[in-house]
Design a protein that fits this description.
The chain is of the alpha/beta class. Helix content is 43%, strand content 13%. It is built from 16 helices and 13 strands. The strands form two sheets. The chain has a seven-stranded parallel beta sheet with strand order 3-2-1-4-5-6-7, with helices on both faces. A six-stranded parallel beta sheet has the order 10-9-8-11-12-13, with helices on both faces. Helix 3 crosses helix 4 and helix 7 packs across helix 12. It starts with a strand and ends in a 29-residue tail after the last helix. The chain binds uridine-diphosphate-N-acetylglucosamine (UD1). Residues 9-11, 38-41, 44, 65, 96-98, 129-130, 205, 237-239, 282 line the site of uridine-diphosphate-N-acetylglucosamine. Uridine-diphosphate-N-acetylglucosamine (UD1) binds at residues 9-11, 38-41, 44, 65, 96-98, 129-130, 205, 237-239, 282.
Length: 388
C-alpha cells in the first residue's frame, strides 16, 4: 500500500509526525512525504522535522510565500505531476492550511482517495481562510478523522455519511505526549531564566490581530502591561515580525516583554508546560494548553475548537485592553488544580488512524467511553467582542 502525506506549514508537522512513526512500523506500507514549501524558514520548517524525527520529505515543491491564490495555484501545478507519477492508494492531509486545501483539490481531481486528519472542526467564521480550507477539504475527503465529538457532529450536520467519519482523537496530543519528556530535559524555562518563576507565553500571528497597526499596538501594550507583573515571552511569527516592523512599534520600558525568534517544538512545549498563562491566536496552542492544564486566552471572536473552552482551560477574549487584563487576572487566579481529561486525547490517535487506513477498522462516536457521555455544557459566550 502506498500512502502519500502532503504537508506544508508549521502546524502540519506535529500532526504528521505520529502518523509517520506509526506507518513506519508496517512493512506492507510505503509512506512518502511531500512538503509543499509553504513554510520554508529553518525555524518554521526544518527544525520541526528534526525535533519530531520526521524523515526528510521525499518531494519538496518549494512554493514559498505569495497571495493565497498564488500559493494554492503553485501547489496545484507542482503537486499534480508528483501524484500522477506516484498513483498512491491514499493521500493523507492534515489541518487547515492553504497547502491542505490545494492538495485535496489535486487528489480529488485525480480520483485519488483522500484522508483528512483533523476533520470537522468549524469556527463558522468564513472570513478565516482556514475555515474555507477546512470545509472544502472535508468535502472532497473520503476518510474524515475527527479529533472530538463536536467535529463529527459538524460533519453530520453538513450531510456527511456517518461511515466516512472516524472519531480517532487528537493527533497533536500524540506528538505532545511523545515530546514532553524531551522538552522537559531541554529545560527551556531555565535557559530563559524563568524556571520557578511565574511567566506568560504569547503568540499572535493571525491577520485580524497583526495586520492592523492599531490592533497590534494595543496587543503589544497589553502584553507590556502584563509584563510589569511577570515576564512575557513572545516568540514572533514571521508575519507578525513584518507587521511590527511596518508599524514601527517598539516595546515600552518598565516591563519584561521579550520578543524572540520563533522557537522549535520542544522549546515551545517546555515553555508552555511551565507557564502561568498563555495568550494566543493559534489553533494548536488552544489544545496543548488544555491538555497541559495551563490557562489560555485566545484572542479571537470564535474557535473551531470549542471543546477547549467547554472542557479545557481556554477562553476567548476580544483584543481590548480592559477585557484582556481582567481575563488574564481571572484565569491566573482560578487555575484548576487538575488538568482536564478530553476523550481520545490520549496519545493513541495515530494508531487508530493507521488501523482505519490499513485495516478499514471503524471508530464511531457511539463507541465512546461512557464517562464522557455527559452532554456538553454551553461554551462561554463572547459577550463583549468588539473592535478595539
Ligand atoms: C499559516 C496558516 C495558518 C497557521 C500558520 C502557522 C494558511 C491559510 N494559514 O499562516 O493556519 O496558523 O501558518 O504558522 O495556510 N513567512 C516567512 N517564513 C516562513 C513562512 C512564512 O517569512 O517560513 C512569512 C511570509 O512572508 C508569508 C507570511 O509569513 O507571506 C505568512 O505565511 P503563510 O504561510 O502565507 O501564512 P501564515 O500566516 O504563516
Amino acid at each position: 500500500m502506498r500512502i502519500v502525506s502532503v504537508v506544508g506549514a508549521r502546524p502540519n508537522f506535529m500532526k504528521l509526525a505520529p502518523v509517520d512513526r506509526e506507518l513506519a512500523k508496517r512493512r506492507d506500507v510505503e509512506h512518502l512525504i511531500v512538503h509543499t514549501g509553504q513554510h520554508y524558514d529553518r525555524d518554521m520548517s526544518a527544525a520541526f522535522f528534526e525535533e519530531l524525527w520526521i524523515p526528510a520529505p521525499d518531494y519538496h515543491l518549494g512554493v514559498g510565500s505569495g497571495s493565497h491564490a498564488a500559493q494554492i495555484a503553485a501547489v496545484l501545478e507542482r503537486l499534480e505531476p508528483v501524484l500522477v507519477d506516484l498513483r498512491p492508494d491514499m493521500v493523507v492531509l492534515y489541518g487547515d492550511v492553504n497547502s491542505t486545501l490545494a492538495a485535496a483539490l489535486v487528489a480529488a481531481k485525480l480520483g485519488l482517495r483522500v484522508g483528512h486528519v483533523e476533520a470537522g472542526l468549524r469556527s463558522g467564521d468564513w472570513t478565516m481562510s482556514e475555515e474555507v480550507n477546512r470545509v472544502l477539504t472535508d468535502r472532497v475527503s473520503e476518510l474524515l478523522f475527527t479529533p472530538s465529538r463536536d467535529a463529527g457532529a459538524n460533519l453530520v450536520a453538513e450531510g456527511v455519511a456517518a461511515d466516512r467519519i472516524h472519531f480517532v482523537g487528537n493527533v497533536m496530543i500524540d506528538s505532545l505526549c511523545w515530546a514532553l519528556p524531551q522538552a522537559a530535559e531541554r529545560a527551556a524555562p531555565r535557559h530563559h531564566g524563568l524556571h520557578g518563576t511565574s511567566y506568560v507565553v504569547a503568540t499572535l500571528h493571525r491577520p485580524p490581530n497583526v495586520d492592523d497597526p492599531a490592533t497590534l499596538a494595543l496587543l503589544l501594550d497589553v502584553l507590556g502591561t502584563l509584563s510589569r507583573e511577570r515576564p512575557v515571552v513572545f516568540p514572533v511569527h514571521p508575519r507578525a515580525r513584518r507587521c511590527l516592523r511596518a508599524a514601527g512599534l517598539t516595546i515600552e520600558r518598565g516591563g519584561d516583554l521579550r520578543l524572540i525568534d520563533p522557537v522549535g517544538y520542544l522549546e515551545m512545549l517546555g515553555l508552555v508546560a511551565e507557564a502561568t498563562l498563555v495568550i494566543t491566536d493559534s489553533g494548536g496552542l488552544q489544545e496543548e494548553t488544555t491538555f497541559l492544564g495551563v490557562p489560555c486566552l485566545t484572542v479571537r471572536p470564535n474557535t473551531e475548537r470549542p471543546i477547549t473552552c467547554r472542557h479545557g482551560t481556554n477562553q476567548l477574549v476580544p483584543p481590548r485592553r480592559d477585557a484582556m487584563l481582567a481575563a488574564a487576572e481571572r484565569a491566573v487566579a482560578r487555575r484548576a488544580p487538575v488538568r482536564p481529561m478530553i476523550e481520545r486525547w490520549d496519545g493513541h490517535t495515530a494508531e487508530r488512524i493507521v488501523r482505519v487506513l490499513c485495516h478499514e477498522e471503524r471508530f464511531d462516536a457511539q463507541d465512546s467511553d461512557p464517562a464522557h457521555d455527559l452532554p456538553l455544557p454551553a461554551a462561554e459566550p463572547v459577550a463583549d467582542y468588539a473592535s478595539p
